[in-house]
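pinging the channel bc i need a second pair of eyes. not urgent but kinda urgent?? the chain im working w is below, pasted from the shared doc
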Amino acid sequence: MAIRIMTDSGSDISQATAKRWGIHVFALPVRFGNEEFLDDVTLSADGLYRRMINTGEIPRTSRVPSYIYEMAFAEAVAAGDTVICITLSSGMSDCYQSACAAAEKFGDRVSVVDSLNVCASQFALVRYAEGLSRMGKTHTEIVQRLERDKRRLHVISYVDTLEYIYKGGQLNLLQALTGGILRIKPVITADEEGKVRILGQASGRANAFKIFTQSVEDAGGIDFSLPVCMSYSGLSDENMQEYMRREAALFEEKENRFHRSRFGPTVGTYAGPGAFAIGFFHKRIASFS
């Protein structure tokens, strides 16, 4: 009997990486008008960003349907395995509710964990679960660790504009107006309920980068002994590379200690081009042991 780790494309774990890790990634539907695609299956990240940049169209995402989860869970259980499914934050998507509905008929053979996070931090939590599984931890032990340690997980993100997040429905009007959608460079996070929250705002990149670094420190600093992920959006990682050059001390001699990824269509829909994020566990967390 094996433990199958599953997640969704809100984690920005590509299908190629998922295959390499031996996990399953459910692709969220992404719609441009009446056209529907599947994240990293029928719509690539390049395809998303080029269409957004060239046409000005802003797509929409929707949850993974319950029957899709149910089919994957049923196949795993029929093979004698158990499932741990780590979903995109319930504060940003209905994927958690959809997965829970599908899991009901399988009892304790399927556990659904609400990451309360997205993109780089969801990526880190999934990698954490996969690592615990490789270490031989039991299904129950892994779920308990995930539920405990996700409260010490953080995502800090720089975005060029709040426009995409607001138009995608992930930010209320008051927050958007306070943020001054078109004028500022915001730094955002996922709050304790897994909803988008503005941490700070600046009139230019340099000041936004300072807010980004201060936000990482305020969260408790990065524990590089556990999974860390840096992620970017768009056709270039220029903003992320510029930040890493300015804050070289934070990443000095740690180039091999964190994963790099790109926002896929699910998260890129709301971040737009030019964003980057870091997902990490703060230093007060227990180790893998």
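so The mean pLDDT is 91. and Residues 146 and 251 are 26 Å apart (CA to CA). — does that match what u expected or am i reading it wrong
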